[in-house]
Amino acid sequence: MNHASYFTPRRSLALGRKTYLAGILNLTPDSFSDGGDFVDQDQAVLRFHQMVEAGAEIIDIGGESTRPGHIPVPADVEIARVVPFIETIRPHTDALISIDTSKAAVAEAAVAAGADIINDVWGARHDPRMAEVMGQSGAACILMHNRPSEEAGVGDVIEAIQTYLDQSILLVKEAGVRDDAIMLDPGLGFGKTYEENWEIMRRLPELVRMGYPILLGASRKSMIAKLLDLKDPKARLSGTLATTSLAIQSGVDFIRVHDVKENRECADVIDHCLRQ
Length: 276
Fold this sequence. Notes:
This protein is 41% helix and 14% strand. The protein has helices spanning 41-54, 75-89, 104-113, 130-137, 157-174, 194-202, 204-208, 222-228, 237-249, 260-274, and strands at 5-6, 13-14, 20-26, 58-62, 96-100, 117-120, 140-144, 182-185, 215-216, 254-257.
């Protein structure tokens, strides 16, 4: 089933007409690209508004790093990082707010504070309460494919993603999530080899054919660093723009990025050529 729009309680986003950007806002001291940049709330508020003004329709807020080798934090620490910020920013913006978490308690608290979307890097499979929280909260969701690193490189990566996400879709729909409130993320860099990450990029149309909007998150990732030999995450903009271009041409509707202005300009040019 191909949906005409992506439903959120605040508003729906029409699909197929333009590319939507989700700006990344990490309220963490240890994220791979911008760890510590926005732990100060005033700086985070400024960054939020800058990304919206630059063209992001969604701001994806995270209170725990998910980079390789990250140190997990308890739910109460994660809540303390994200909920006061959401409560502060919500009255001053109509932008959609996504909470990037795999903990049901964090998702529940964030939605109560004003978040519109729950973005779970484990596809509602890590916390046994997550699907229930998604269903009962009425929030939209993003379901990402993930797996233990030892499973990387085993079998066909696209088949693995499709099987995993089909199960996640069934799980959240049984919990009450609307079918048109589901978005899928192939999970670049999560339980994937370098070669598998690029295989996903080449085969994005197969994931688009699953019938749900796709979110691609390649921004500044190590797959770009390795290909272009760039150690500094903030030097990976050109490579990121190339992945954004390829994704849009493959039918992807949502791109998750650090550099909103540049990716917005890239998307607008491609949209003008392909979606008018």
